[in-house]
Amino acid sequence: MKIRWNPIVKKDLQVTARSMRLSWGLFAYDVVLVLAFLLALAVIQGESYSYYSDRNIYSYLITLFPVLAVAQVCIVALIAPIITASSISGEKERQTFDIMLTTCMSPFSIVLGKVVSAVIRILFFVAAGMPVMALAFVVGGLAWSSLLYFVLTIILLSVLSGSIGIFCSSICRKSISAVVLSFVIYFVIYILTFVPTILNLLWTEGDTVGEAPLLLLVNPGVFFEEFFMQLMTGESVFGSEMGTNFSQGSVGFVTYRLAQGKTWMFLSAACILVLAFWFMIAAAWNVDPMNHSGGKKRRKTKTAKKAA
Amino acid sequence: MLTINNLTKKYGKFTAVNHLSLHIPAGDLFGFVGPNGAGKTTTIRIVCGLLKPSSGSVQIGDTNAPIGSKEMKRLIGYVPDFFGVYDNLKVHEYMDFYGSMYGMQSRDIAKLTDDLLELVNLSDKREFYVDTLSRGMKQRLCVARALLHNPKLLILDEPSSGLDPRARVEMKELLKNLHSMGKTIVISSHILSELAEMCTSIGIMNRGQLMMAGRIEDIMQQVAGGKRIHIQAASGIETAVRLLMEQAGVAVESVRENEIIITNNATDEQMSALIGQLIQNQVVLTGFYREEGSLESLLMQLTGGGVQ
């Protein structure tokens, strides 16, 4: 059976692959990863030779994998909006978007194509980082499945970042505005989702956070922390970080039940996917001309006059 | 082929298109004429599914599909006034991309691409990158792209804008060719002489309203049978003006040193009687001619201003 590619994915990859920007981007990405690796190695060496250290160097070297993985996640989180936020606004700036909309592709297919091509482009970077990641395997203690799970989580992050970028791109006329808006949404998802939990802690003087941590299900940062905790120690981030305070009383009933085993991680992945899907639907709605009856705002009137 | 019923587009209080009704028969080459801001582009964008109308309907052929639906888009090939191309994409890849967006198979696209590139005289540019083509070539490529899915209706918005004289002639010849092949073409342009030369029918728009529409011969006849007459006299201008002002159905438009311009609705017999009367009253006539009709003069009459 012949796989039918979304034409946008094919075109975007064709155009990207021929661009020198991609080559330079991959080079810069690897340089940063290598620097992160060398820095981590230097710190580990320093720690292991320390007079007070009672552990051998190998027990420290095992931390290379999460260090490199977190470095990759941070870089991906940084570059994803830059890659995706210009995808639709870039088409608008280039004046190719109107032609795209007159074809038989539905707005959702256009958005999906853009997200998939963004995810694939991000995977180029992940693949380029593999030789550096492989250094972490040299010291042993890691299974191939760890790498596979890591790639899957990167794909999850890419889908969310891509969807946010496309959503912003569908709203903004200029790519730069879309990038800025993407980072604002990042801030809301990564940082502001902690606010209810912190406020609950303050109000109850540290007694309980109730069900407020449920909001963190959509926070990719918490998801990654949980992922690495599960991968490296087999424990939940809630169990270890909240320590002795973590009990049914310190959190709400639902949060407590979800924080057992790997339930939180899988549910969080599902919530992140649902959020990404929502951003895609919203982006598709935004770009569909049939959903905009003509603005009441003066700005749109001016544009309309210009178009007429 | 194209039937527009009571189409209205409002942006807040501004009405870009006001109750426009129009029928363009199959096989016509229809020219949309009007000053800037007349509503031509808005009408075209509504027909192509790029704008949602405030009210009214558009029908193409026998299809009763709503505006912006896939069925409707499949029937239309759209060439916008300004459009961009992608860097790092070859001519045949550009065609393949848009063909795929209409759900066509790559093999069919490749075959059609060869034929269409020949039609638009770009066969030798097949392997060229689209961004290296001249503006005229890009415009012709865009026409080839719009024809790829064999639409019933080809819509071109200002196809000659920004083209050099040679490219304009090539574009005109291309459109004539397409018309001779039986394509229904709607074209909006500011180059009225070109429209008068190649269109089979025209519609004149002003301030969102259709002022006049019909076969080009009928319209030009109206203009030719027109109403402006230049009377030149060596002496007796004052007498001539007085006599002309006394005539029913005659309005003196302007009086210069040796020339009077009048508008009249009189028959040829009445006009010859008028000439006789002028001669009898010692007006030394040196010239008496009807202004040659042109689309420009008609547009000026109908829109009450200069052509833009």
> CATH superfamily membership of the largest domain in chain B, which one?
P-loop containing nucleotide triphosphate hydrolases
Helix content of chain A: over 70%
Question: Oligomer, anyone?
Answer: heterodimer
Strands of chain B, total number: 13
Number of contiguous helices of chain B: 11
The share of residues in extended strands of chain A comes to under 5%
* End-to-end CA span of chain A: 47 Å
What is the string of SSEs of chain B from the N terminus onward? EEEHEHEHHHEHEHEEHEHEEHEH
Mean pLDDT over the full residue set of chain A: 81
Spatial strand order of the main sheet of chain B: 5-6-7-3-8-9
What is the level-2 CATH architecture name of the largest domain in chain B?
A: 3-Layer(aba) Sandwich
Shape of chain A: globular
Low-confidence segments of chain B, given as residue ranges, are none
CATH topology of the largest domain in chain B, what is it called?
Answer: Rossmann fold
Structural domain tally of chain B: 2
Largest interface: A-B, 38 and 49 residues
| Distance between the amino and carboxyl termini of chain B | 29 Å
Query: What percent of residues of chain B are in strands?
Result: 25-35%
Q: What sequence of helices (H) and strands (E) makes up the elements of chain A?
A: HHHHHHHHHHHHHHH
Number of helices of chain A: 15
Structural class of chain A: mainly alpha
Description:
The complex is a heterodimer of chains A (308) and B (308). Helix content of chain A is 72%, strand content 0%. With 308 residues, chain A is mainly α. Chain A has one domain (7-288). In chain A, α11 runs antiparallel to α14. The radius of gyration of chain A is 22 Å and the shape is globular. Chain A starts with 6 loop residues before the first helix and ends with a helix. Mean pLDDT of chain A is 81; it is low at 296-308. By secondary structure, chain B is α/β, with parallel strands linked by helices. Chain B folds into 2 domains: 2-221, Rossmann fold; 227-290, 2-Layer Sandwich (Alpha-Beta Plaits). Helices cover 37% and strands 28% of the residues of chain B. Chain B has helices spanning 40-47, 70-74, 91-101, 106-119, 135-147, 165-180, 192-198, 216-224, 237-246, 268-280, 295-303; strands spanning 2-11, 14-24, 29-33, 55-60, 76-79, 153-157, 184-188, 201-206, 209-215, 228-235, 250-255, 259-264, 284-290. In chain B, α5 packs parallel to α6. The longest helix of chain B has 16 residues, at 165-180. Chain A binds chain B through residues 5, 7-8, 10-11, 14-15, 18-19, 94-96, 98-106, 288-298, 300-301, 304-305, 307-308, and chain B through 9-14, 16-17, 36-42, 45, 48-52, 54, 67-68, 70, 73-74, 76, 78, 80, 82-89, 93, 97-98, 100-103, 142, 145, 149, 208.
